[in-house]
Amino acid sequence: MNHSNETIVREAVALDVPDSDSLRFLPEGPIPLTKDGYLSWVGIQHGSSAKHGSINLLDLNTNENRSFDLPGRPGFAFACDGVDNDGLPTRFVAGVERELGIFDLTDRSWKPFQSDVDSAVTNTIINDGLVYEDNLIFGTKDLAFAEKKAGLYLYRGQDQKLIALRNDQVCSNGKMIRVDDSGRLKLVDIDSPTRLIVEYDLDIDAGTIGEARVLVDLTSDPGVPDGAVLTPEGDGIIVSIFLPTVADHGETRLYDLATGNLRCVWRTPGSPQNTCPALVAKSGRVHLVITTAVENMSAEDQEKCPNAGRLFVGETNFEDASKIVPSVYRAR
Question: Is the pTM of this model over 0.90?
Fold first, then answer.
């Protein structure tokens, strides 16, 4: 990472992906796959009134995208262990509506294994999440984006138990796990409307988190922090900024974990609503993939933001592609 005081500005390049209005509505959750140059991403919903979304597989070598419709709106999807003859996953663990389950790409079947997420409240669905070994940590979102009633959960693999960590979020996003110098687990988390990136001590065995510590304060920023990933060395946070107004570009930013200083900005021309980043290895180099969205834009807004909903690819200074370790769920 560049540790000078100068902020690097990079221009990301728009792909011709997705190629349909339904898929460009709300792309999120890009995740590198174990096959070089491949990633998955989710279409959260296929239009403002749609009640379903999709899992997508994208080949950055050819820009070919394959889409698989889900029975509801997904918040996240991660490949399960095991691949086909082409080296691609055939099963994904996903959070869809208020269920956790396994989606099989070969027969397009959906098999839930946890169905009582956020059962104490109404009008919420599963949003962003992460995989850590055989555990899932994920949050939900209030569909009205108004009430502090959305949950933050641990699905603990060792006993298949769903544990509520918080129940007072609005739109739970940007989840990462890191290990500090003393070997303790830390959960980095974003509740988007707070405009704060925070960190908790995480104890998976006990099923608890500690008090929140602010890492990055964006309360004076016009944009809203959405999805995020750690840098390969774990010393920085790359966060996509959802700017809910017309602008000539959007931003995904790299902040230093220790100081909170802004180190790099990737601009997305013609697409202000950045949703999620992913670092993807291709041909020995590390690329930044950024999802963006059309959500909430009028027809006039879309004319002014012609690349809204497209995926973008940006260059990085991360040199060791072997440090890009895809998240794979150890399905039981």
Answer: yes
Can you tell me the distance from the alpha carbon of 173 to that of 128, in angstroms, rounded to the nearest whole number?
A: 5
Please write the tens of the pLDDT for every residue from 227-259: 999 999 999 999 999 999 999 999 999 999 999
Q: Taking every pair of C-alpha atoms in the chain, what is the biggest distance, in angstroms?
A: 53
Q: How many folded domains does the chain comprise? A: 1
- CA angle (48, 11, 41) in 5-degree steps: 40
Residue 203 identity (one-letter amino acid) = D
- Burial (Cβ within 10 Å: 0-12, 13-18, ≥19) of residue 247: middle
How many other CB atoms sit within 10 Å of the CB of residue 240?
Answer: 31
Q: Are 85 and 92 in contact (CB under 8 A)?
A: no
For residue 48, give its domain range: 8-329
The answer to the question of residue 318 being in a domain is yes
| pLDDT tens profile 142-190 | 999 999 999 999 999 999 999 999 999 999 999 999 999 999 999 999 9
